[in-house]
Amino acid sequence: MTVSPDVIFVDDEEHLRISAAQTFELAGLSAQCFGNAADALEQVSRSYAGVVVSDIRMPNMDGSELLHRLLEIDFELPVLLVTGHGDVKLAVSSMQQGAYDFIEKPFAPDYLVASVRRALEKRRLTLENRHLRTKVTQRDKLETRLTGRTPVMIALRKAIRSIASTDLDVQITGETGVGKEVVARALHDLSPRADGPFVAINCGALSLDQVESELFGHHAGAFAGAIRTRIGKLEHGRRGTIFLDEIESMPLDLQVKLLRVLEERSITPLGSNEVVELDVRFLSASKENLQMAVEKGTFRQDLYFRLTTSMLNIPSLRERRDDIPRLFIQLANEAARRYRREFADIPSHYLLELSNRDWPGNVRELRNEADRFVLGVDKVDEDTAEQATLAQRMAAHERAIVSSELSAHNGVLKETYEALGISRKSLYEKMQKHGLNRRGFMEDDSSAS
Fold first, then answer.
1. DSSP-derived secondary structure for 43-109
2. Which residue from 149, 169, 211, 261 could staple onto 282, CB 3.0 to 4.6 Å apart?
3. Taking the chain (449 residues) in consecutive chunks of 10 residues, what is each chunk's mean pLDDT?
4. How remote is the C-alpha of 260 from its chain's centroid?
5. Angle at the Cα of 228 (from 226 to 230), degrees rounded to 5?
6. Across the chain, which distance is largest between two alpha carbons, in Å?
7. Which letter does DSSP use for residue 242 in this model?
8. 3-class SS of residue 447
């Protein structure tokens, strides 16, 4: 792997480049020197961890234009300009435009190195802060995609964050509608392949007569009707992620070919002898138990072992009933924005009723319910609230309030009972009464007092 230099030094005079290279080497800094700005510009990206030092007076692209072009790539990149005595006004103007520092000729080597070290420290802090902000943003996005404070959902998000940064192939299991593609996209978006393509392939929707051409592609004339060359979906996913949904539906003869692709990471398009290398990550999903499919003989055991290097199971809504009210409110808010409707309050007895349903269609079914609620298709029957006793309604309301405060304070009990205006003992009693566990409202394993 090529390591980027600490310093990119640009000057059209060779003896100054040689001198600068020696100065940086003696100071323990790596440097790459260029005789023109255009070549130096090609080496810089937003992720470059070093700094740029450039002379102002140069033919073609001068230091001022180079500064402007560099700041278009990254406005926080430290650029130091080297000036002659008559260029001081120009240097000051350049600093007003975003240059980090200017160094007047002739300069002492120690002064140059000291200025570069300060700039490198600034660059390190800038990239570190960016990285932290990105992690926070990604975390927030993941929690929005996979809403829930129950232990099973906290564990799922932790597993996703842990696996996403690797190149492991992952098998995702779960009932219909739990969000298997949502998890697959999260794994892609949190991975180093996020800038590459995400190609979703529904194995159950591929017609048998076209499946090979769809996946592997073909050359013109490979078969009757193949008028032009076509790139297959597997090749289209290079440097990205391939998501094989409903993998249990794939025909056995195609499973053999997929196994070879997984092992060799290459394909040969139909009608071609040329091997195409694949730099891809494979994610697969099934709503059925693949181990049982292996036992029935409908799924190859060797492919099963190859796909299940790592496994993620998405819980059904029945397994996380405490998440249903929060998730329904989020889905209803999204529906209100989508349909440009004013968001109405959701009665607590209605949320309690939703929590008690089985939801065989899981999140997909709950989303449809939220859409109907926002559009007024399904009216909330106020009589259902009257069917419950006063004590039941009061209990449901109290449970909703305590759950809300526990969520708001990330399961920290002291902050929760202070916000509710009750004693620590009273909070414990209410949590026990309603079957609430603070760990269901904590986003990590850190203790909360």
1. T--TT--SEEEEES--SSS-HHHHHHHHHHH-TT--EEEEE-GGGHHHHHHHHHTT-SEEEESS--H
2. 169
3. 80 92 94 93 90 92 90 90 75 79 87 94 85 60 85 92 93 95 94 91 77 80 73 89 93 89 89 87 93 93 93 94 87 88 75 86 94 81 53 71 75 86 88 80 48
4. 29
5. 90
6. 91
7. E
8. coil
Torsion sign, CA atoms 5, 6, 9, 14: negative
Structure token digits, residue 119: 């700039």
Token digits for 134?
């990105």
Going by C-beta distance under 8 Å and a sequence separation of 6 or more, which residues neighbour residue 296?
none
**How many other CB atoms sit within 10 Å of the CB of residue 101?**
17
DSSP structure string for 290-308:
HHHHHHHTSS-HHHHHHHT
276-277 and 266-267 beta bridge pairing: antiparallel
Cα–Cα nearest to 181, from 198, 197, 157: 198
- The SS3 call for residue 228 is coil
Task: Compute the distance between CA of residue 85 and CA of residue 244 in angstroms, rounded to an integer.
Answer: 65
What tokens were used for 77? 């990149």
Q: CA–CA separation, 145 vs 186, rounded Å? A: 8
- What do you get for the CA distance between the two ends of the chain, in Å? 47
DSSP helix/strand/coil, 193: coil
Print burial letters for 225-249: b (CB count within 10 Å at least 16), e (below 16). eeeeebebbbbebbebbbbbbbbbb
* Alpha carbon 330 to chain centroid, angstroms: 20
- Bridge-based pairing state of the strands 51-55 and 241-245: unpaired
